[in-house]
What we know:
By secondary structure, the chain is of the alpha/beta class. The protein is 30% helix and 21% strand.
Amino acid sequence: MFRRLLLTCCLCLAFELRAQAPRQVAAPQPLPSSEGAAFVVKAGRLIDPETGSSAVNQMISVKDGRIIEIGPAVAIPQGAETIDLSGYSVLPGLVDAHNHLALTYKKVPENDFYYFTYVQESTALRAIEAASNGMQMLSAGFTVVRDLGNNGLYADSALRQAIEQGWIPGPTLINSGIIIGGYGGQFTPTPEMAKDHNILYPEYLTADTRDEIIKAVRQNVLFGAKVIKICVDCKPYPYSVDDMKLFIHEAANAGGLKVAGHVQTPEGARRAIEAGIWSIEHDDGLNDELNKLMAQKGIWRAGTETPTDYWGTPADFERTVAGMKSAWKYGVQMAFSTDADYYVPGMSRGQLVIDFLKSWKAAGIPDKDILKVMTINGYKICDIYGNRGPLKPGFPADMIAVKGNPLQDIDALRSVAFVMKDGLVFKRDGVMTPERFLHGGPINGWKIH
Ligand SMILES: [Zn+2]
């Protein structure tokens, strides 16, 4: 969102690495934190967002955090608790492909200007806020969040580690660490603050030269990033196509990470596309021609399309919706994404995020396709599709339940009654029940970084 507050630009990207091939990830092991937990979920309607189909009266058996079997009748694991969701639709968890869990700017005191949030709040405080935001997202049915920077000094990595080690419940996080950009990042500091006090860091990691680009990627990887986020065109000295190819090459070299580019100009988007970036964040720089190019090259769009309730004028929203329609028409790979990083009084982070359905509905995209975007496309842009997300035997048991049928009425997702994450019940009958997730130590292992 703050991208709208600080408009300037840059450009960047890297290699013709369509060689950003899917990462090979080992099958998840049973989680000690879920050990011994066994359930049989009775689903009145089981939804497959991939095909847009559903089946009535299905059962899902779950043990030690993983799905064992799915069908009209399943073997009951020993000691399994039955969860009766026969009055509900059961489906895989939702994905927000662009959020900032460790940033919440507010009207008071910072007048919605995140620069002051960064000055006033420690990384420690922001990490605790992130833990709360993560639970709010999970309660709204979002079992996966791509968390793209502005998280202080790696509060995002700390949150991911805490969730994965087994301290607290939260979504599966694909986090970027610090946003990498040309000098200044997205800030416009005074000369004295920038030079003598280095106020840019840790909100931004400056990388102006090729050596600095390599070092910045490696720093983020070392401190827990699972995706690399760059400012493509935040300043008048944007990244070149070659710069971005270097980012892509270096990220690929570091375990196959992908590069997400904040883009706000058509020139930036064009260079990012030419370099072969994994995803373009925000819709500001995109147009019909670029949508066609993105579709041709299979580049992801995380458009962060904000309803007028939270940003802009009706004319801005018209432009947003027209952009979505164009991307949809040309077959761009689209992800549900919000850029949520602000407080709306009376709303949780999850309620704010799900309200972005307004934009998708306004674009006239069919409900079953919106559901696919929010699930299957989300797992794909997060590059976890091969090991988490879909409801399949062997996969971690992440699922939600709602009244009604979201294939026909996507607004059914606004009221999530049940959430299971890693085979544990986080929410039941509309009430959060996190006790089973809380442990006095890193029960999944302290070596998760
Ligand atoms: Zn953002």
